[in-house]
């Protein structure tokens, strides 16, 4: 009997005992559903949280001049202080990094400024920041109304501003601020957007609520008593690519800062990937736990399948005797029952994979805003496990069937 004939015989046997086959396949499908479903849910939630962490700046790093913050080394020894990063260096770094990451360049203009509009003014607690086109995204600031800076405004240094919600309420109340003018640091700016309320930031800074954002070129052209210090924040798409991009950025920044060969970096790079690292560790532990739960469920399914295959061998003892009398070998009998067990497992496993993927994505969607994830790895693992369970559960009943004596089998009633 060939393999194809064995498969046909397996389906014929399954069709003749349809209810028993369906119940057995359901047992297997529940085991596969629990395994694939748990692992899919973990992956989908991790994907969703990674996207959230990315929007919060988890997949990013900051570059600043080394020693410029006057932090002490161990033992209270002051480290060497290097010049701050200037405007030209920040622009060169952004151009050279290219598409490897999304670079946001900003400069601190003032920390206690007043804004005026007509006869109203804010308290002297507004931060004034000059930023480029990527500043809002990298800082996770969203616009409530209005728009971001246009490319022409960024390049020409136009007098436009985006203000925080608290600043808007102080100056305009419930009226719209879009298109109106405010006076800031002795100059008139047109308001083009208002930021969403973010609540108080760390240290009572007000977050985005007490912020006035102006184009980077505008801030660079404003009169000042001392040179501006430029901050560079680079965001990457995924946490996995962060180390590679950081290595690229280090080489580019050394060239931009003209650090000599063998000299230490004249800048510091600080990444914000601690949340992503903790998430990877936590999801790894959850996957181990989920795999164990799914494995235990599959173990119960394999025992049930073995029991049903034993019943099938007992019911078909006379049939086995007839096949052997007609010339079927022990190997062919064993193959027949093994293929039957594998077919049942694959049928149940296919249903379990569909249910598991649906369940995992449903759990992720219920917990948070997740995207539909197709876990090809877990689907392939599920199919491999189905075949393995079929072989493991069917081998003993198949061996028992192959060892039956044909004469005794023909006498069996």
Can you describe what's shown?
The chain has 413 residues and is an alpha+beta fold. The protein has 2 domains: 3-53 and 277-411, no CATH class; 60-272, no CATH class. The chain contains 13 helices and 12 strands. It has helices at residues 3-16, 18-55, 87-97, 135-138, 151-156, 165-172, 216-221, 242-257, 274-315, 317-325, 330-367, 376-402, 406-411; strands at residues 60-65, 102-113, 115-117, 120-121, 126-131, 143-146, 160-163, 181-184, 187-195, 211-215, 230-235, 267-271. Strands 1, 2, 3, 4, 5, 6, 7, 8, 9, 10, 11 and 12 form a 12-stranded mixed beta sheet that branches. A hairpin with a 2-residue loop joins strand 3 and strand 4. Helix 2 (18-55) packs parallel to helix 11. The two termini are 25 Å apart.
